[in-house]
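Quick one: structure for this chain?
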Amino acid sequence: MWYVPHVLRLHLATLTVALCVSMPAGAEVRRLHWRGVFSDGAPPAHLERTTEVHLAVTLKQMGIELAPGVPFDGEAAARCQFSPPARAAKCAVEVVQTSDGLRAERKVELPFRDADDLAESLSLLVSDMLQTDLHELVAPPPVTPPSDGGHDPKNGGGDHANDPRDQAGNGGNGSGATDGKAASDERAAQLARARLAKARKARRASGPPVPSQVIVEVGPSLALGFTGEPLLAGGLLRVMWARGLLRVGGALSMTGTATERGGYDLTFFRLFTGPRVGLGVTRRRLDFDLSVGPALSVLATDAHVTDGTHALATLAFVAGVRLSLLLTQKVALQLGLDVSVAVSRESVRAGTHTLVDFDLGTAEISVGLAYRP
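Got it. Here's what it folds into:
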């Protein structure tokens, strides 16, 4: 039979209790809900999405998860005032701890170059408020097992809770426990600051995060030929995915008209669709992109007589440019021009007489609204 000394048994018991206490604390993850950036004036493009990306990275390094909804342990928001042409925002940032209603607020003027620069400043301001004002939201560091403190078998295993010398050392009024909590809070704040510094250094080395978004454009359009063919009117739908300079998506255009040529009533319908890929840049409230791609062009003709219907489907190639003016954070006014070249042409003849001749080239002009969720 194995013999375990009394001191060793006490050590094992102390270590077991410390591990049981420390495991839940080390596994605890706080959740912070970000209500967004409320803007007065014209903010830089993509500010809201870029701030969420920066904030998620910063909070993760502090042991806090960015929560899209309930449940959460705290919530934060920012209100920024923009007065062009100054490249600075007057921002008020608020963080609230939901458990007891504690609230922290900072008002500061933040200079910025672009949306990414302002978003990083807002995320670092939120993290600083969490560490200094509401540091209970920061996930605590793992608890280390206490030392034995010189256990004495003759004194109940070294328990000095009732030792008058210990009471004299801490004033006999529990100030030692208060000092221990303050030291623990300071260690937690130091650990959070170290994590934040490491995360910021890593972001600087790898470059700022690149936001992505989907752009949905819809609006009226006009298709013009170059050889006197009828003007076609209709609408255009365009969906593009944007990330940095890259643009990928597709477009669908449907236009038509009714006209009279050579005593015949003619109706035309044109469907033009295909994928697009290109490049784009965003500067403050303006966005410009250039895209190219193959397309399917279908032109249907109806002369309203026997055997007077015909449809031509052909391959085409298109190049398009878009200029967008951001009206709000998610809605933009968009002006576009697409120039296409088909591989086949269409002619409508009555005997030997040509009524309408659709050449290979077509230009389509569109004006619409673009939604950027």
